[in-house]
Structures are given as structure tokens and as C-alpha cells.
Amino acid sequence: MRKLAHPFQVLFSELAQRSLDASFSSSYDPYGRFISAAVKGRRYWYFDTQDHQGRRKRSYVGPMDDTEITKRVEAFRELKDDIRARRKMVSALVNQAGLPKPDRTAGDIVEALAHAGFFRMRGVLVGSVAFQTYSALLGAYLPEASMMTGDADFAQFHSISVAIGDAMPPILDILEKVDPSFEPIPHVSGKPASTRFVTSSGFKVEFLTPNRGPEAYNDRPARMPALGGAAAQPLRFLDFLIFDPRRTVMLHRAGIPVNVPAPERYAVHKLIVSTRRKTGGDDSAKSRKDLWQAQQLMEAMIELKMNDDLADVFAEAMDRGPSWRAAISSALRRLPAESGDKIIGGIGEGLKNLSMDPEKYLPRLPGTERKDIEKSTGNGEDYRP
Question: Which residues form the signal peptide (predicted)?
Fold first, then answer.
């Protein structure tokens, strides 16, 4: 594993702080501009932006001789200067440091939802788009983190959506500003609320929420008051994933402040869901990608001496019951021998540091069983995405 050079780690930390500060500093679109115009001998401020078809949209702000309004215009100019500086930081981190960035569509969608307040309302970016942020967050290069993706997944606890007393604008309106071809996909239950939206090119956006109730709830979209009319698909194990998320920055445009799952939770969650996919076709490919991402994150965290964080979350998952233990143990047995031994050894060291008994939590991988697994999986190569 190759670590990110220290100067680039410092640069990313500065970008993260400045991006977060900027997200609180203006209610105006940072890609628009203020202009002045004379009307009947008096000058007024207007704000120019563009719609999704590139047409100019002008809105009235107020008279130039209103000192409070002019102060806001001056503050916005400072924000614009900061945007230019942050764009240079993002460019250096991507082009010089070689950190991964999202594809244009995914980045624009995350940015649009961020500006609409999704992350302010404690939403969490999940899935492969979130995985792309971990290289910068950890300060280490993860193999294949720059993989293309045709979807973006967003999660929020239902209890938070209900409790915050705030709501985003209509989700479809937000998405259509990125791509006018976005359309809601009818839910399989036949309920009118949609949890997924898709473009004419096939890019999907899905909203998720944890399911802590019966399995039957998986077939019912959950109404989410904060999500601008969108519902969310209830999923098992998601509460484990999005608990206590991390703030970081997606390397797109001038940097987008986002919430993502803690990397140790992402890794253990991927172990679990890799065993829950159906066999064959696209699900098998997703299962291989799940396991690959889990392996890369766990190996990186162990090399970065983050054993304790990984071990703590690993033990939490194993303590959740027999089905969790069975899923995690099954996934670990699918890892190539060298990687599996390294990960189990690293977690064991972390458990000892936390005064926990490794024998209680770590599955045994007998040598004969391991050889059979290597023979059938080609030492793990068949699960690479």
C-alpha cells in the first residue's frame, strides 16, 4: 500500500476545512454572479445563474445603496475567490497526487444534493461513490478506487428525517437540474412514492433507510419527510453502516463536503452484504466488488495501524447475533489466503489492544479448508470487480 505524501495530506486537510466553511457562508449559487444595472436613474443588484439548458436566469437582489446588501455582495466575491483557490487544490490532489475523483455525473448529483441540504440534514453518501473518498480520508491509495459507477446511493435514518423539522426542495427538481431526463422509477410495491430515479442513459440515484423491523418492511417504501417528496428503500444492516459517519470532501469542482460511513464500518458492512447477494449475473459481480472493497479497506487500515478502530467495529458486528457472525465468517473464508491471514491477524492484534479475546470473535480458517477455497476461487482473483 502506498501512502499519500505528507504535503498532499496537509493540502487535503485545508481543502476539507475551507469547503466546510464555505458551505455555511452563502445562500447563493457559487457558480452564479452578482451584476449591477441601472433602472430609472438608480442602480440595483441582480444575481445571474444558468438553468440546465444554459439559459440565463436573473433574479432581483436589491438596491446598491443598501449597505447590508452590498456587504453580502462583497462577501460573495470573497467566496468566489475561495472557490477558485479550492478548485486549484482539487486539481493538485487529483492530477498531481493521483487521488480518485468521481465521474462527472455522480459528482454533479452529489453536489446538487449537497447544495439542497442533504448532508446538512445528516444524510450519508454510501456505495461505490463513497468508497472513492476513502483514499484521501485515510491518506493512502486504494486500488481501483477510481472505478466508474452507474449509480449513486444516499441514506438517512428515518428517525432523523422525521425529527429535524426541515425539508429539501423536491428531489426530482434537484435532479433535473443535473440531467433533465431524470424520471422516478415506480416502486415494486405499487406504492406511489419513489425511492429511485433514473436518467435516459441509465444512471440511477437511490435513497435508502435502515430496516430494523420485519423483513416484510423491505417491500414497503419508507416516507422521508426531509427528502423533498422522495421515499427511501428500507434495508437490513444499513443502521450499522451509517451510524457515526465521517465528514470528508469529494474531489469534484471546488470540493464537496459530504458525510460518508466510517471506513471500518464500510469494510465490515461489505463483508456482510457480499454474502447476501443472489448467485449469478449482476448480483455475483456486485458480490465480488463488495468483497474486494472490504479487503482493500481492511488491509489499508491495518497497514495504517488503525487495527483498534477496525477491531472495535468488527466485534460490534459479531456481537449482533448468529446471522451476522455466519455472514462475516463466510466472507472472510472467500478471501485469498495471504490477505485473509493478514486481516485476521490485524483484527486479532486490535482486539488484544482493546482487552477483548480474539478467540471469541475470529473465525477459524483450517488449512485444508483454506486450500479447497483457494482451488475453487483461484486464490481470490475471481471476486475482483
Answer: none
Domain stops at, among 261, 284, 305: 261
Same-domain pairing of 49 and 20 = yes
Per-residue pLDDT of 40-88, as tens digits, reads 788 888 888 876 566 787 777 778 888 877 777 777 777 778 888 999 9
| Boundaries of domain holding 317 | 264-383
Return the bridge partners of 63, or none.
Answer: 44
pTM: 0.83
The verdict on 240 and 295 lying in the same domain is no
Distance between CA atoms of residues 207 and 344, nearest Å: 33
Q: Is 124 left (phi over 0), alpha (psi -120 to 50) or beta?
A: beta
Domain boundary among 96, 119, 153: 96
Task: Mark whether 158 and 218 lie in a shared domain.
Answer: yes
User: For residue 316, what is the enclosing H or E element?
Assistant: helix 307-318
Residue 190 confidence (pLDDT): 72
Lowest mean pLDDT among 100-114, 325-339, 371-385: 371-385
**Residue 112 pLDDT exceeds 70:** yes
Q: Is position 1 within any domain?
A: no
**Which parts of the chain are beta strand (E)?**
33-39, 42-50, 56-63, 124-126, 151-155, 183-185, 196-198, 204-210, 222-223, 231-235, 246-250, 256-260
